[in-house]
Amino acid sequence: MSGLRSKKKNKKRKSAYRRGEKLAILFKRGTLFLLFVILATALALGLKIFAQQFSVKEIVVSGNYHLDKKDILSALKIKKGESLLRLDLKDIGEGLKQKAWIKSVALRKQFPGTIVIKVEEAVPEALLSLKKRLYIIDEDGRILERIKGETTQFLPVIKDIDPENRKGIAEALKLVKALSEKDGFIDRGDIEIGLESYGLTVSIDGEFIKVGYGKYAEKFQRWIELEPEIRKRGVPVKYVDLRFKGSVIVKPMKKIKGNKAS
User: Could you tell me if 137 and 143 are in contact, meaning their C-beta atoms sit under 8 angstroms apart?
Assistant: First the structure.
């Protein structure tokens, strides 16, 4: 009998020991889990506080001459207080380049709280007159903006060449560049470039010149050398033709009764 009682007592002790082990294991697991939660919360809070230290406090813009700083900031869609760490400068730059006047843009983060934006603006190259409207275009033929109301002609005018006619616009802009490099042409009052079936034409202060395509600098150099002699002779000129290699064709106006020319 005493042996049976001893066995029962041993079983009870073992069962209590096992329950104690289980409770200890659960306690350890619970402690570890609680510790993990505390650490995770502390880490998240720390990151939040850290990010707040690097929030956008200032935006510095340079290189803008035509565009107002407010126009650039409105296109950024960045608010002061946003995390500097989370901003994707590549996406922001691509968004800015959608504005017509911005040719290229460079952005960088300057910690702890500044975004630095350096803008390269497009350069006005000519005016485009199309369907009774006047536009400013750059060297690539992109329309920068429409001019409303009366204005003084401050750039050569490309007349009635649709921007979708890429070849026509590109050739007209090459002609503008060639004229700008020749002394005495670009400074004259009115320069108007047109397009005919045979190529480009240009009217300079009312003087009509058939230009054609290509070698614009060479063609106008020939006219520069000949023009003083024509002026000296007082020959009324109907048009000048520079289309043919090595030659300048000057078409004088016909004299009619009353000594008027046509």
Answer: yes
Helix (H) or strand (E) holding 106: strand 102-110
What's the first-to-final CA gap in the chain, in angstroms? 147
Stretches where the chain sits below pLDDT 70 are 1-30, 32-53, 184-189, 255-262
To 5 degrees, how large is the angle CA 98–CA 100–CA 104? 70
- The residue to which tokens 């350096």 are assigned: 118
Which of 83, 78, 81, 107 is closest to 94 using CA atoms?
A: 107
Residue keyed to tokens 């126009």: 71
Token readout for 26 is: 């659960």
Four-residue CA torsion sign, 181, 184, 185, 186? positive
pLDDT at residue 41 in the model? 65
Strand, coil or helix: what is 104?
A: strand
Q: Which residues pair with 207 in a beta bridge?
A: 204
Instruction: Compute the distance between CA of residue 36 and CA of residue 39 in angstroms, rounded to an integer.
Output: 5
Cα separation, 124 vs 261, whole angstroms: 38
**Looking at this protein, which amino acid is placed at residue 39?**
L
Q: What is the pLDDT of residues 109-144, one digit of tens each?
A: 888 888 999 999 999 999 999 998 999 999 999 999
Q: What residue has token string 């500097």?
A: 84
Q: Are the beta carbons of 186 and 172 closer than 8 angstroms?
A: no
The confidence score (pLDDT) of residue 254 equals 76
Task: Please state, in angstroms and rounded to a whole number, the distance separating the CA atoms of residues 86 and 115.
Answer: 12
Residues 6+ apart with CB under 8 A from 64: 72, 119, 121
